[in-house]
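This part of the workshop introduces the protein records we will be handling. To make this concrete, we reproduce a full record directly below.
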Amino acid sequence: MKKKNLSIKEIAKLSNVSVATVSRVINNRSGFSAETREKVLKVINETGYEANNIAKSLRMSRSHSIGIIVPDIGNFFFADIVQKIEELLFERSYATIICNTARSSSKEKAYLKMLESKMIDGLIVISGAEQFELGNINSDFPLICIDRMPKNPESTIFISSNHYQGAFEATELLLSKNCKNLCIALHRKTSSASRERLKGFKDALKKNSIQYNEKNNFLYLPAEKTDNKVSVIKKYLKSNPDIDGIFAVNDNIALVLLDILPQLGKNIPEDIKLIGFDNTSGAYYCKPKLSSVKQNTSKLAQRTVDSLLDIINGKREQVDKYQLESVQLVLRESTD
């Protein structure tokens, strides 16, 4: 018997108790028996009664569990940071509920609803193309966003690496290797991190008196696992035969290029030099080994956990923005 948006008066009627009693149960006050509490909670559960504060109000104590929403757990960077966060939380006696959305907004909404019912103490959201919002969960709920702009940045902690600087340095590296015609490779749906990397790429070109032109300096690759990546790259190279340096906004894109470019007669690094971002394990084991920009995932994880638990323990307001400056170029064969 699911009937949402019931009033507290209707809950009282279905429970055969007074409105005051339902209110006391919801707010965990005294003045009712264990049997009454069980009866009211049963009605709330069966009817799907929702109120902004219900998950918080019904708690007898903290759940000591944290939700983590991640867009692609198969992505090495995401998996690495989730693992580090989980380890740090476990050391502080917190369990984690990891939700892989597969970049689906509907799946994310379903997970948010599930996490609310689990009465988690806090939430960590990692990356994503769209701004993040809590939906029906209280706006003051303990929340940390990593590399994903929150809908309400004035009331949410946002943590990221310096993506702009990493991209700027990667682009300047290609230029220092005598690359004259550069492009940036990325997907059409871009996160706030990717947008910062694009800005860093453009500004590095500008600093070196190279005019940015989307037709020449921008390579869109389909994000889906399709076979048309070869044709997309082939078409781009036909229009831009002089390209000799590519900055890929992540290692996954760089590894696709590392595989396809030789098929199209372009050898790396002899014809085209290539650098990625995230320094995934694949960057070391491919041939040629891939140069990349390394983020400090240990610092990202530590800052995230410390900030979230400070909010939960009432030591701080959840309003701030942290940008970790430590990005590092890891040079390998693809830029030699």
